[in-house]
Amino acid sequence: MKIMVLGGDGFCGWPTSLHLSNLGHEVIIVDNLSRRNIDNELEASSLTPITPIGMRLATWQELTGKRIDFHRIDVAENYHRLLTLIKEHKPQAIVHFAEQRAAPYSMKSPSHKRYTVNNNLNATHNVLCAIVESGLDIHLAHLGTMGVYGYGTAGMKIPEGYLPVEVVTEDGERVRQEILYPANPGSIYHMTKTQDQLFFAYYAKNDQVRITDLHQGIVWGTNTNETSSDERLINRFDYDGDYGTVLNRFLMQAAIGYPLTVHGTGGQTRAFIHIQDTVRCIQLALENPPEKGDRVKILNQMTETHRVRDLATLVSDMTGSEIAFVPNPRNESAENDLHVKNDLFLELGLNPTTLSQGLLFEVTEVAKRYAHRADPSKIPCTSTWTTKQQAGKPKEGVLDTVSS
Amino acid sequence: MKIMVLGGDGFCGWPTSLHLSNLGHEVIIVDNLSRRNIDNELEASSLTPITPIGMRLATWQELTGKRIDFHRIDVAENYHRLLTLIKEHKPQAIVHFAEQRAAPYSMKSPSHKRYTVNNNLNATHNVLCAIVESGLDIHLAHLGTMGVYGYGTAGMKIPEGYLPVEVVTEDGERVRQEILYPANPGSIYHMTKTQDQLFFAYYAKNDQVRITDLHQGIVWGTNTNETSSDERLINRFDYDGDYGTVLNRFLMQAAIGYPLTVHGTGGQTRAFIHIQDTVRCIQLALENPPEKGDRVKILNQMTETHRVRDLATLVSDMTGSEIAFVPNPRNESAENDLHVKNDLFLELGLNPTTLSQGLLFEVTEVAKRYAHRADPSKIPCTSTWTTKQQAGKPKEGVLDTVSS
Predict the structure, then answer these.
(1) Using 50, 70 and 90 to split pLDDT, how confident is the model at B396?
(2) Which positions in chain B touch A163 (Cβ < 8 Å)?
């Protein structure tokens, strides 16, 4: 299959590109290198020593003989280059990771809010518009987020995208309907993903574009079979206050002897998935596209749920690290339950990597190995969700534990 | 009250600005004149002879002694000028009309789709972001559309924004919830308004911005008490294939002896409101803002529903015009019922202008009076909803009857 990967240089995009290439697909990466540029802005960098995209691709070809094309295009800004590329290459599928993906970054300032909205919404719309204008029957697989659902309703399992409800009519009649799960985003970033869903629903309905939306949990782990085959292919590992996801940051904190920073009570329950399962899920999604004319196919791309303080305890028990409870910069409930359906991927044959299997490996092989590269000053999260919180924020900065 | 009107030079914005000014409010118009520029692009113009914004404002001051400020700012592009203006003027309310508002225009080409998405979403987000950044407690009243609801469900009255539903939990327990009415937009334009709703829900929740979203029906009529007080204040009347709304176009077609063009069976039921009621509704919305911390206040801004072919018959009976049935460029059901709640405005004292009262006046005072200005070549709608329709479109162009 010919597959275009938008955002193919990023944390999920890079291992996905290698995984698909390794399976024998022809992969074309489109990326504007925005994630590397944001590292420059934040004066932060990956804990792991990632190489430039040119060296990544040359290494892959040297090792496997497989060639991956790369085009530096800003998908949100340069519609016509994207369209031309699609018309030239005629991919059967496009995987769309080309969005700003950190909730704390999206809340940093008005300009970061506006960048996230403008970039994410125009990127998604440009891809859809270009698929229709190309006249090609291309399957679009998009990385959504579990955050579109909000953080769950007591007693109810979060379904895969669609919620069956009953509406009572004027005549007292009950009408059963299946609706898109009512959106309840917790940040500007998450909000853009709920707006993406409306793009998808519209283009599936009006233009019969085949679309799969993958609502992913928080990704943990660093490498996949492919990215660990040579150090020059290593994947990013973010630990800074904006891009570091909770579990990876605990691992890094443990490795450098920094306390594991838990927000509020740590009572937030979140969904998780290992990066190796991410790339496998995308493979499965591409192998099982919806039919033309179908509604958007939505799958929950997660394998486990955990309470943040339980994760901290797990890592603490494994490493002897201290746990520090700090104020929560987010505007959310202190405690929540979360039950999530993920039957669709399990039925397709996903065999999850569990925390209990993989965590110790991450501690020793990644976090400890590269601990000398860590800059502890980048750990605190300086983004807060409201100006009120900013005013009341402790001088040393509020620490963030979750981001997806 | 000090009120900023974004899009205050447009079809709804101009009469609203005059109405609010006449009530004694201090009005500041912000507009990039995009609607006049689109006239240049489409080589079309208002049936009525609208004057430039400078002459409009000078005339208003000459007649009433009241001054309305005007700033030519692109709200979607120039965030910092908008923010500065808000900080300088400290308005108590902002009325937001600054969006591309024609469904057929939004479907004209990929570039029109992309313009509508980029303009409407960035405009709305910039306004919200600027309100939060200003630190002021400003009530935002936004013009939404009945189109966010789709075209109704048999037997069910469309509520005002929120739908009570029952969800069945894993334990078989029924949980009642009130959710934002599931969006079902019929065009790119309507889709942007459903995405606006998610901006509003988020900013009301996270930042306690006070927001009213007015889901307006198709506006008919041309003038209000204020715009009819001097010909230099006259409001626009669009009859072209992109911007002309169904009833106004029937009136103009009758006036120039062109057949009344009905799409398909004309079985589409739509909601309507007279422009005089539009300005009164906005006044009522501004006088009755939500409290800080409330969810978004949603009101249906419409007064009657009619089937398109019944409207054609009404105008035909009144004028002796022929009716011509032509292919429908839209991707929609041929026939639909529509029942809409509008209790909130009626409770606030709205006393609707009905079609039966106002229609004959429009025919004689506007359509016939300015019929000599009509260019019949601009009547056909050349936008179609899908490329398939484009391929099958009759040579003489498909005619459009509805737009809102």
Answers:
(1) very low
(2) 167
